[in-house]
Amino acid sequence: MDVEGKRVRIKAKGRIFEGVAMPSSTNSFVLKLDNGYNVGFTEYELLEVFEEGKHGEEIAALEKKESLPDIKIISTGGTIASKVDYRTGAVTSQFSAEEIVGDVPELAEICNIDAMLLYNILSENMKAKQWIELAGEVYKAIKSGYEGVIITHGTDTMAYTASALAFMLSTPAPVILVGAQRSSDRPSSDAAMNLVCAANAAIADLGEVVVVMHANTSDDTCHIHRGVKVRKCHTSRRDAFQSVNYPPLGLVSYPSGEIKWMAERIKRGERELKLADRLEEKVTLVKFFPGLKPDIMDYYYDRGYRGFVIEGTGLGHVSTDWVDSIARISEDSVVVMTSQCIWGRVCDRVYDTGRYLLEAGVIEGEDMLPEVALIKLMWLLGNYDVEEARSLVNKNLVGEINPTTRYWEVEK
Asked: Catalytic: which of 70, 85, 156, 205?
């Protein structure tokens, strides 16, 4: 009998075990227990195969409470909306938005939830088209009266989406991106806590696009990161997201939901709702390394690209044999210099190479992260001509640039 992927009860080694039958490359029978661990048996007796229940079917009737604010959850997929496919052993996007809400009953005490599934994709499959559609859905939700929007999203490109929304959308209400480093059906998952913290941020005195994720490896606090100042800095840790060149806006305590504000923020109602959702896709990000030829810039330019973000070394440098190519390209394009260093700002007036680059038409990206500069340039060239975009690229528009760079002690 094929029981792979099904919940079973077996007898082995004189004991009863219950869990989900996993795929196995050996002759062992592998069972995933409810505590998350896998165990293997060479000899066992199959006692029962359980009927497959539909996960989350009980949440069809979430009662609204008039005393609570209305929040929209838009699900786009990712690990927070994933579980292990026990037929293959892979983590796949399978939970619907309603199922996510059903897994976290604490949400019903914080706000009234209206959930929708916009995408069910892993975040590496996000493109400009999805960012534009997502911005439109957020705009419609806030315009229709929701007091905040939560977007569940894969963590790998969540910072890109946060930047895209921050530039496209002027919002008077909180727009919260939240994800998980470990899938929702794992005992060590951070999904539920992150979502509860996100809900508390969504009803708070906040009026901008932010990312809410674990502040440390414990289950007690989440940081509220400005959407254009955050980066995923670790592949798997639960506190992978860090604010760069600006402190987190706030610290959410779990399970109380109390928020301690830590930095200057845009507050609820300070901005009018506006949508400018055009993005120019022919913009590229080039990471310089020793020996890289400037041909890469020429390649993109000859194919119609007019927006270039260079991830240079240190204060913002490339080798001197790039200068002529950049001078040619910058005549009718925008070339922005950022740094491979995580913290600090670009300054091309210290060394000769930097001054040559400025003379060639390079624009300093100040303290913007390279990926934020990329999204900003896509947005600028989608809404302005090259000259206007060039004049705005190193101006602070949504908190992506600080006038000065300093060091902050970050509370976790």
From this structure: 156
For the chain, helix, strand, coil in percent to 5 are: 25, 25, 50
Catalytic residue among 79, 161, 221, 284: 79
Residue position matching structure tokens 């090259």: 386
**Which CATH architecture describes the domain 7-49?**
Roll (2.30)
Query: Do 173 and 268 touch, CB atoms closer than 8 A?
Result: yes
Query: Pick the catalytic residue: 32, 72, 232, 376?
Result: 232
More confident: 102 or 229: 229
- Please state the rounded mean pLDDT for residues 311-327: 97
Q: Where in the chain is the domain with CATH 2.30.30.520?
A: 7-49
Q: What is the pTM of this model?
A: 0.84
Annotated active-site residue in 32, 72, 103, 155: 155
How is domain 58-275 classified at the CATH fold level?
Rossmann fold (3.40.50)
Q: Is 219 a catalytic residue?
A: no
pLDDT of 26 > 80? The answer is: no
E strand residue ranges, 195-325:
209-214, 221-226, 230-232, 241-243, 250-253, 259-261, 274-275, 283-287, 307-312
Question: Which positions ≥6 away from 78 have C-beta within 8 Å?
Answer: 93, 121, 122, 123, 152, 153, 154, 155, 158, 179, 180
| DSSP output for 351-375 | SHHHHHHHHHT-EE-TT--HHHHHH
What pLDDT is recorded for position 88? Answer: 55
The question of whether 83 is a catalytic residue gets the answer no
Catalytic annotation on 152? no
Higher pLDDT, 60 or 63: 63
d(CA 377, CA 83): 36
| Residue 255 phi, psi dihedral angles, 5° rounding | -95, 5
SS3 state at 226: strand
pLDDT of residue 184: 62
Mark whether 293 is an active-site residue: no
The CATH 3.40.50.40 portion of the chain extends over: 283-392
Residue 60's pLDDT is: 41
Which of these CATH numbers, 3.40.50.40, 3.40.50.2300, 3.40.190.170, 3.40.1190.20, describes 283-392? 3.40.50.40
Q: What number of other Cβ atoms are within 10 A of residue 173's Cβ?
A: 25
Residue 94 has pLDDT above 60, yes or no: no
Residue by residue, DSSP assigns 19-72 as EEEEP-SSSSEEEEETTS-EEEESS-EEEEEPPPP-TTGGGG-PPP-TTS-EEE
